[in-house]
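To the team - nicotinamide-adenine-dinucleotide complex, inputs and output below.
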Amino acid sequence: MAEKVGFIGLGIMGGPMAQNLMETGYELVLYNRTTEKAEEIADDGATVAESPKEVAESCDVVVLMLPDSPQVEEIVEGEDGVLEGLKEGALIVDMSTISPVVTRELAEKIEERGASMLDAPVSGGEPGAQQGTLAIMAGGSEEDFERARPLLEVMGDAITHVGPTGAGQTAKAANQIVVAVTLEGISEALVLASKAGVAPEKILEAISGGLAGSNVMEAKKENFLEHDFEPGFRVDLHHKDLGIALATGREYGVSLPVTAIVDQMLESLKTKGRGDRDHSAILTLIEDQAQHELGDGVG
Ligand code: NAD
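Output:
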């Protein structure tokens, strides 16, 4: 019989991920800070719990999809949290992007209670969550990974067991460096070309088939060209992720100079009130500095 699954955190990503699990036939117990969101999804046939503790009391596997380390800590260790209701032998699958250091600390506390934890952050954004095609990078024991695999296969299609606890979060930090630095590079290229009089869509057409082309370029093409910064993946979440990458670099003695610059650029975007925009809005910072908006004066 399929395991009973709890799902905590039903935002842009967690909502559709939980929906896909329900549609596959999993029996779900939902919890979200804003209860209406859980009730809306539960309309399709799930139970809504009053607290994370209640979720843990009734489930074999509990999936978390929360913004950042403090929220995951609160949900796991806080009052009426998961730890208070945890069943022996239960598995926590944390799919949020958080610090690998916090992950290892939480895993230890969960193990002390006779349960275990898998970190399984994702890449692929809202469309990947909706279509069940996320890339999932997991850290934990082989046994826990195999136990979670049927669930992960509903939510994603590129599923990698990267290594022990925390390795999934480390892989995600690496992923976020590549995505941020690439978005910044594309933004510089497009603003330069546009102010120099070449249409940005022609630039993307010309370079996307060569070495400069990437999944990031393909996925964010329309955001850049249409100036559509509806998220998607919010600037403040990506800023949080670069903070995790920089802190991890500091812990292990790895200097990440370009990551640090892009981190500061995202800080500026937040200060300008664009923290809730899609991360492709890094383009607008380059535009501000160049006093030129994509397409201006290009015929
Ligand atoms: P979101 O802000 O849309 O969703 C977070 C959900 O958690 C919300 O429903 C919120 O109500 C709930 N929540 C927040 N604090 C809570 C608390 N203390 N108790 C209970 N519920 C709480 O964020 P999202 O975009 O779905 O991202 C979730 C995670 O996935 C983040 O770690 C993010 O970095 C990661 N991620 C997001 C994307 C993306 O494209 N959006 C892609 C990959 C990874």
